[in-house]
Protein 1
Amino acid sequence: DKGLKHFADLGYQPIGEADLWQEYPEILLYSGAMLRPGLQRAIDAFQEREGVMINTVYNGCGILVSQMKAGEKPEAYVSCDISFMETVQDRFLPSKRLTENDMVILVKKGNPKQIKGLADLAKPNISVGLAHPEKSALGKLTEVLLKANGLDQLILKNTKVDSPTGDFLVNQVRAGSLDAVIVYRSNGMSNPDNLATHLDLIEIRLDPVSEATTTAVQPYAIAKDSKHKHLLGRFFEQVSTRESRSVFESFGFRWITKTEGNDG
């Protein structure tokens, strides 16, 4: 307290709510599994620069939300979609939209079942994999999408697998256990070999008047009771650099938040 007064007397502006001082801070970060490829490089660079440890928990956002409601307290959260941020927003400072990502259909290379769009997933002898609607944002968005198009019950008959994460579904269709899956574009692009060698990507086309969406928006938020708000603010800046943005875009994300030297 005496030190801050001395700095103020010299013309410095003290910070109202400074971070807790720790020689080696540890931060608990919750993130949707779909963000792992884009986030990890930024996390590694930030840890090296700041001398901190960011302990990450990646999972389906429905599972992460359930853990928070059961008492877990991450200091920051990157959600797969704003819908899974809103349910816990009261625990966090106002969120910032970071990226967006489209849902797509993935099939085996060459598309042997000739799947052209959502309606084809309801045809006989098509084995489909979907994300779980309660355990993941991907599953919830898929459920809303199929219901809006009157396909939910028809495709449910062909659904052989439901998973809390899209990466598991990608592995299943790649292995030949499934004919088609609905996942995020980033799930398909997480491994360069997927689309180059093993899988075809089919865009989901919607009627222009449809109220459904194929796009998920990923927000970032800092916990209200975090002891490292300034540190986590700098982490957001790290994630928002041009280098980090290029990594996210290489995995199929589209950037929303402004970056250094970027106007949009």
Protein 2
Amino acid sequence: QDRDSRNGRPGAGTPPSPRQGGRRSLELQPRSTTALILEHRPANLPAKSAEEAQKHRQQYEEMVVQARKREVKEAERRRRQLEERCRLEDSIAAVQTWTQDVLPNWSSVRTSRRVRELWWQGVPPSVRGRVWSLAVGNELNITPELFHICLARAKERGRGSTALAPGTEGKGAADAGPSDRESSLELIKLDISRTFPHLCIFQQGGPYHDVLHSVLGAYTCYRPDVGYVQGMSFIAAVLILNLDTADAFIAFSNLLNRPCQMAFYRVEYCLV
């Protein structure tokens, strides 16, 4: 000890410097709030009571539960991000396949096994309208100009029509005579409000209300022998969500012109 004192170094009996004592106390301190709760109090302080120790134990368990919930929530968030990234990558690849391989060669590949597989996987929204138009076709050779002519006629009849005649509410075109099928224009107003009501986009004031009314009204004037039949609005609504108004009318008219669909809407069940 004398030698250490002469050499200027602290010996065993020399008290540590404040800096050394502070460093040592930092090493002994708990490194988290959780550890602090579970630590006993220093010897120079009163010990915890049993109630306080139990309270700290409960707080610790609650903290552990909350931490586990956060970990589960974070893992779920990362899983959803990974799935969304995979879906996005698959969608980009599918769009490239449709735009580069299928659509330019539609006539030769539309019945191939590869295209059927792509159909079952789902057509990407960005190309869905073009694919549907090609798949339905236009055997009737309907033009956008014809659509606007039929639409103008429907609007003219709509301005000149009055309220529904007694006894006609809820009836379709099949209940009307051949010369009175265009009167089913009034039935469209009743049916539009019942078309996908949970979406709130086809009802009065919605962004697609007038568009749906235009397509159905134009079809009623295009095919007065068929008119409007309840349920047509759902088919037209799905087409409107993926096609322009004129293209939706063209696809709608050609789709309903198929023998099975036409027999169904003309209530000719023997042909169905």
Protein 3
Amino acid sequence: MQKMLFVINPAAGRSSLRDTLMSVVKIFSDADYLVTLYITKCSRDGQAQVAAWAHQYDVVVCAGGDGTLNEVVNGILSNGADVPLGYIPVGTTNDFATSHQLSRIPRQAAQHIVDGQPFGHDIGEFNGVYFTYVAACGLFSDVSFSTPQALKNAFGRFAYYFEGARKIQEITQDFPLNLTVDGEEINGKYCFLAIANSLSLGGVLQFPENLVSLSDGILEVLAIRAPQNPIEFHNLMRAMVEKDYNNNLIRCIHGKEIRVQSDIPLAWTLDGESGGEHTDVTIRVCKQQIRLIY
């Protein structure tokens, strides 16, 4: 019998797991797993518990949103355990699940974990901490963690749209960045910057599948320049809808190591959670660092 650590964030999403929790645990139990259930109590609690105990288990599973997954991944990597990870997405946006086409129905997700195989997945390292799919700064980057949890639970993804609408006036504000990608300097003024390993950002920006591989040891750098007039604003919106990420407003670059320097502290988000304010960050890809079951 294999041992499973099952970490659940009870505050994530709209609690789609509550009514099916026993069914999910039964699926794992019927597959001959001895399940230890842990309900997180506060922010970073899941990370601390996984960091302390992951090496004593054969598999770790987490249920929550992108932030919960971020905590568990950081816990596994800080523990140094070579343990596969299963994910049941019950958060609000679930960008990571979108990229991997993971089921949002808890029972189905659990069955896929039981039937699936672990595959290597790239992880990003941001000044010594890890992110699963995106590090971002600038316009709208703080929407996910500045949106109240109660609003997320009540309205789902629309809560982000409500919060984002309040910030739309900031779209013409940009900031100078010294950007270095694999040794090449790409400097300029931008209103948004994302370093990602994902097909979806915030449920709004979608990367073409032929542009992104989630296990190739490469990160995508998306830099958006602030539109200066209504025509440029229209062109930006159209480019985002049409997934045109190489034009005079949007630039997409690929790289393994990215350094971002700014004159003023910029607020960063890591997987939708606050990453603090920084003037100098170094981001590296960790190729196939996590073994994800799907």
